[in-house]
Each structure stands twice: as C-alpha cells, then as structure tokens.
Amino acid sequence: MKLYYDSDADLNLLKGKKIAILGYGSQGHAHALNLKDSGMDVVVGLNAGNPDIEKAEKAGLTVQLNDEAAKAADIIMMLVPDQIQSAVYENDIKSNLQAGNVLAFAHGFNIHYNQIVPPKDIDVIMIAPKSPGHLVRRQYEAGQGVPNIIAVYQDASGKAKDIALAYSKGIGGTRAGVIETTFKEETETDLFGEQAVLCGGVTELIRAGFETLVGAGYQPEIAYFECLHEMKLIVDLIYEGGLSRMYYSVSDTAEYGGLAKGPKIIGKESREAMKKLLEDIQTGEFATEWILENKANGPKFNALRRLLQNSQIEQVGAKLRGMMSWIKK
Ligand code: NAP
Ligand code: MG
Question: Which ligand 1 atom sits closest to the C-alpha of 80?
Fold first, then answer.
C-alpha cells in the first residue's frame, strides 16, 4: 500500500481555479476554511434561506446560491447530505458543468449507485477525511491533519489523481497521509462498517446486553453502567493501542472472559449475517431500500428513531447522565 504525503502533492494545480464547497455542515465548514487558509479561491454554495449562510459569511467566506457557485467554479465539492445530493445535482449543478470541470465527493454512494450520472468530459474524484469535520478543522489549525482517502472515478483531464492529492493537501490530509481507494471500495466498506460494526452491531450488542440483565431482574441503572457507559473506556483503549492494549489494561478475569466467551456471542450466525449484509450492499439491495425509504418520506426511518427514543435504555441513560456533570449536554 502506498501512502502519499505533502511532497507528493502540488497545490499549484488548484491555483487560479475556483473551488465551490456545496454545504456548510460538518465536512463543508472544515473543507472551506482549510482550503481558504491554504490560499485557495473558495466559494461556499448553499440553498436560499439556509441558516448556515450567515455562519459561513461570519467566518469570512464568500457565499452564493448553489447554482451560482457551481457555475462560477472549476472544482465543485459536494458536501450536502448524501440523501439530497442527487436532487442538488439535477437542480443546481448539471446545467452549470463545463468540460474540464472537476466534481468531487467525500463519500461514494451517489456515484457508485448511479444516483448521479456525470457527463464524460469532467473529472470525478473523491477526497474523504477519515474523521468528522470538526477534527479536520481543528487538526489543520494545529498545523496537522487527519488521514484522507482519495479515489478517481473519471479522469477526463488525465490529472484527476493529482488534483485529488492537491485538494487533500489543501485541507491538511497529506500532512497525515493519504491512501488511494476506489468509489466502489469506499462506498461498500463504509456502508458495511457502519451497519455491521460501528452504528448497527455495537448498538444492538449494547441493547441486547442491557435487556438481558434487566430481563433477569437486575437494576436497569446498574445494567446501563455495565453495558453502555463503560463502552467508552474500552473503545478509548482500543483506539489508542489496539485490542491487545485494551486486554492489557483490564483485569485478567476480564481478559480471559472476553477472549474465551466473545466468540460465543459473535459466533457463526453473526458472521453469516455479516456476509448477507455485505451481499446486500454489493448487489445494491440496501441502496435501493434506502433510496426508496427517502422517496417515501422515511416512514420506517422515523418509526425506528421513535422506537429507540422511547426504549428503556435511552430513558435510563438520560437520567443517569444527568448525574455526570462532566458529560456535555
Ligand atoms: P452535514 O453535516 O449534514 O452538512 C450538510 C450541509 O449541507 C449543511 O450545511 C446543510 O444545511 C447543507 N444543506 C442542506 N440542504 C442543502 C441544499 N439543498 N443545498 C446546499 N446545502 C444544503 O453533512 P456532512 O456530515 O458534512 O456530510 C457531507 C458529506 O461528507 C457526505 O457525503 C458524507 O457522507 C461525507 N462525509 C461525512 C463525514 C462526517 O464525519 N460527517 C466523514 C466523511 C465523509 P442545514 O444544516 O441547514 O440542512
Ligand atoms: Mg452530518
């Protein structure tokens, strides 16, 4: 695997080009401000009436409506929520694209699953920081950066990869290191990771553990501490030094119990379920479900959110966190 650093990237490729950052949320504010501080010509694109217009202007950025920004720009970075990117593309970008322009993304979903089908005469690239936007900004201001992954979907100019590397340098990514991937790999692994492990697997594991203890008659408050609250302490250790570091820090009883009993919980059945999940991602089954869910105004999505909010673990947690003055509201 090759890593790219500052010396592999040339900011001159972006000089004299206007970069439109569409959206000013988590990623948008970080990309716009970092690129501006790197000396680039940046405009923020937003929809009329968006409260972020004032925020971006206060930060010293030029703001235009999406279509004006797209028209003025040579490089357009799509940082509006993934579910509305195809509508923004159709309404504001498509008719304002010119041959030689660059269309950039921080996540591959809409390109990989054909929700946006760009013309052949432009470059289509991805620059995805592997962290939330606020850390992208904070690290840049501290003279550092967070690792980025980049990808090229279409290379009309013959320079698409170098442009992606230059952009990454502009937001601080090459300070930390850049890895090349493809739209397919980024999209499929990202969806799999969030569903199987980060946002789906972990939360269900916490809920199942909590409900097992409460169902056996133990106090919900004690179950909350054991199955949810302590998760952060464990994850921090894993983040700092890997699984072994975590096992080194916990008691021998916890280490033996974890190593010996964990595979009984995430066993053959869970691994089979993971394979099925991955298959649904690879075949576009999940993408179709999510796109239709959004077209239908999110009936299942809203019901799932409501069910979670009303669940016992969330109610108990809200009460207990009130006792912990150091946890930010
Ligand atoms: P976000 O925080 O939800 O921000 C989206 C921004 O777009 C907000 O400023 C939003 O304004 C604005 N917006 C909404 N509708 C718009 C419209 N019609 N026209 C223009 N702007 C509009 O999104 P995000 O998390 O930064 O995600 C942006 C992209 O980065 C996605 O592709 C995502 O997958 C990718 N990404 C995110 C992360 C992450 O950690 N967050 C990491 C890597 C990649 P309002 O708030 O007023 O709606
Ligand atoms: Mg967000």
Answer: 7
The label of the residue with tokens 């669940």 reads: 311
Ligand 1 atom 8, closest CA: 25
Q: Are 13 and 182 in contact (CB under 8 A)?
A: no
- Determine if ligand 1 sits within 6 Å of the CB of residue 28: yes
Active-site positions? Answer: 107
Q: Rounded CA gap, 136 and 27, in Å?
A: 8
Token match 């869910």: residue?
293
Q: Give the residue whose CA is nearest to atom 48 of ligand 1.
A: 50
179 exposure class (CB count in 10 Å sphere: 0-12, 13-18, 19+): middle
Torsion over CA: 281, 284, 288, 291 (sign): positive
Asked if residue 82 has its Cβ within 6 Å of ligand 1, the reply is yes
In order along its 329 residues, the chain shows pLDDT tens digits of 999 999 999 999 999 999 999 999 999 999 999 999 999 999 999 999 999 999 999 999 999 999 999 999 999 999 999 999 999 999 999 999 999 999 999 999 999 999 999 999 999 999 999 999 999 999 999 999 999 999 999 999 999 999 999 999 999 999 999 999 999 999 999 999 999 999 999 999 999 999 999 999 999 999 999 999 999 999 999 999 999 999 999 999 999 999 999 999 999 999 999 999 999 999 999 999 999 999 999 999 999 999 999 999 999 999 999 998 888 76
Cβ atoms within 10 Å of 2's Cβ, excluding its own: 7
Helix boundaries (H) for the chain: 26-37, 52-58, 66-72, 85-88, 109-112, 133-141, 160-170, 173-176, 183-192, 201-215, 220-224, 231-249, 252-265, 268-282, 285-295, 299-309, 312-321
Maximal C-alpha separation, the chain: 68
